[in-house]
Design a protein that fits this description.
412 residues, alpha/beta, 3 domains, 13-stranded parallel β-sheet, nine-stranded parallel β-sheet, 9 helices, 22% helix, 32% strand, LRR_dom_sf
Length: 412
């Protein structure tokens, strides 16, 4: 570096991409690491800071394979410098040496704070790996309306990142333009993944150490993928995800699933221990459900089946879809079903005879709690409804009619 310094002057500050990679992660040579920090990182930074005119930076990447807490200062300086050059893509990986980790644990990680992101206005892509992120809440800020930390961010990928309590919630809250979020092998102080972001379109979670996922007010979310085979992710709750189109979930230990507010989703859920399923939305939604231990399902259909009944192009239009929809819950023992009109649940005799042999059935259902805004009022309609329900659930032993309005309040 000393020999090349004169030739490099003016070069580093003019290139649109800066990429520093320490190399082999299996090499535990701390002397070599020290040379990388002192002779490469620090010296390069000195050369860059000497230049008065600096070109905008498209990408800054820093990969360390033997990060030490003593390196935090140079990392901070490089972050500050890249932001001064309006960096667009920031890619930081600070893997801690295994022996160092055994002594320091989480304290060995580089800790990303609100201060480190104070001038991150230009970043559109953020990739972080092997670090700890503090709770960057704006609570207590002296500014009446604090500026968002990451106003231009579109995509964020986080791997092997540890989050302090509520750190992920507040971090994503600082990203008003974020469209893609990916979490891989991350851990959480409160064992919970919580996200609320109205601009988010794609969200992926893979092998993270968390017991619960909660997503709410993600009104533009279209695609969701969750893979959890090793850790005890037991609960997933999604609310106000109105535009969700695709959902793919494999969660070996999942027990509770709730999706409230969905118009048209195609969902594949493989959850061998799932016992409680809750859904609010429209019949356009399609579920492919592998849940052999499902015990109860609560379904509130928002479709408007009242008045003239019912804007169908001919008879039976909605019935095949309703049959297939309910048939996915064939393992459940108990079900709570809410619809606006009882006629939506009546399968005519001709339909039952035509599709009897090929129809999926609720073969294990014993108890059905049924709530209808427009319930049958005469014996003839009640008989037709009972016959239809028994055709769909031949093992049904008990039908309980609930007050529709009271049941709605339970779901609000």
């Amino acid at each position: 570096m000393s020999f090349l310094s004169k030739q490099w002057e003016g070069v580093l500050s003019s290139v649109p991409i800066l990429d520093f990679d320490e190399g082999d992660e299996n090499d535990n040579n701390l002397v070599r690491h020290r040379k990388f920090v002192d002779n490469i990182l620090k010296r390069s930074l000195e050369l860059c800071e000497k230049e008065k005119q600096k070109q905008l930076l498209d990408k800054f990447r820093l990969c360390m394979t033997r990060y030490l807490s003593a390196d935090a200062t140079v990392v901070n300086k490089w972050l500050r410098y890249s932001m001064e050059r309006s960096v667009k893509e920031l890619d930081i990986s600070l893997r801690v040496d295994k022996s160092y980790w055994l002594w320091g644990g989480l304290r060995s990680y580089y800790c990303l704070s609100r201060k480190a992101l104070a001038n991150a206005n230009s970043i559109t892509t953020l990739n972080l790996e092997y670090m700890r992120i503090k709770n960057i809440s704006r609570f207590g800020s002296s500014t009446a309306k604090p500026i968002r930390l990451l106003p231009s961010l579109k995509a964020m990928s986080l791997k092997n990142v540890h989050f302090d309590t509520n750190a992920l919630l507040y971090l994503t809250g600082e990203c008003p333009s974020m469209e893609s979020l990916s979490l891989t092998s991350c851990s959480f102080a409160n064992f919970e993944i919580c996200v609320s972001n109205s601009s988010l379109r794609s969200f992926g979670v893979k092998q993270c150490k968390a017991g619960e996922i909660r997503v709410y007010e993600a009104v533009n979310l279209e695609s969701l993928t969750v893979v959890s085979s090793s850790f005890e992710l037991e609960s997933m709750i999604f609310r106000e995800c109105y535009n969700l189109k695709y959902m793919n979930i494999f969660a070996r230990h999942l027990k509770v699933f709730q999706l409230d507010g969905c118009y048209d989703v195609k969902a594949t859920i493989n959850a061998p221990k799932l016992c409680d399923f809750n859904f609010e939305g429209y019949l356009k939604s399609e579920f492919s459900l592998k849940a052999p231990k499902l015990w109860s399902a609560s379904i509130l259909l928002w479709d408007n089946w009242d008045g003239e009944f019912l804007n169908f192009d001919g008879p039976w239009k909605h019935l095949p879809r309703l049959r297939d929809f309910l048939g996915e819950f064939k393992a459940t023992k108990g079900m709570t079903l809410l619809v606006s009109h009882f006629k939506a649940l009546i399968f005519p005799k001709e339909f039952r005879e035509t599709f009897s042999s090929s129809s999926p059935k609720l073969l294990n259902l014993k108890v059905l709690d049924l709530a209808m805004e427009n319930a049958p009022t005469n014996m003839r309609d009640k008989k037709h409804l009972t016959n239809s329900l028994l055709w769909m659930a031949p093992t049904l032993q008990e039908i309980n009619q609930l007050e529709y309005n009271e049941e709605l309040e339970m779901y609000e």
